[in-house]
Structures are given as C-alpha cells and as structure tokens.
Amino acid sequence: MAKPLVTCLLFDGQAEEAAKFYCTVFKNSKITQVTPMVVTFELNGNKFMGLNGGPKLKFDEAISFVVSCDTQDE
Which ranges carry the PhnB-like domain (predicted)? Predict the structure, then answer.
C-alpha cells in the first residue's frame, strides 16, 4: 500500500495555536497529537503536521511533505 503524504508547515512556536485555528475553520477536523516540537492534525480527512522550527524557520508560503518509511532504502 502506498504511504500517505503528510503536509508539513513550519512555525516559530505557534504550531498548536495554528492547528486549533485551522480546526475551527474546517469542519470534520481535529488535533491528533501535541508535543513541544510537533502538532499533528486532520482537516477534512487530510493529514497535516505543524513543526515548531524556531526563529530560523518561520511560517511562510512554503510547505514540505513527510512520508513515513520503514527503512532508509524505502
């Protein structure tokens, strides 16, 4: 089975606040995990990750994609 892509957004410490806001805007949305570094959430069934990257990696229009793999070769 193909691994799902997760869209990753970078923040300077506001990832949880952003995820909470996005969940108020889009129906059928929820926060699935919160750690000091990473917040994962779903918006209408689409998975997202908010990464608190610090002041050198501030929020902008860029995105990254995360694919979880079992091995480095994969």
Answer: 5-74
| pLDDT 10s digits, 24-70 | 999 999 999 999 999 999 999 999 999 998 877 777 777 888 888 88
Q: Which amino acid is residue 40, in one-letter code?
A: T
CA distance to 9, 11, 57, per residue, from 62 (Å): 8, 11, 11
Residue 27 φ then ψ, to 5°: -65, 165
Q: Which residue matches tokens 């000091």?
A: 36
CA distance 35 to 38: 5
Class of the 6-55 domain?
A: alpha beta
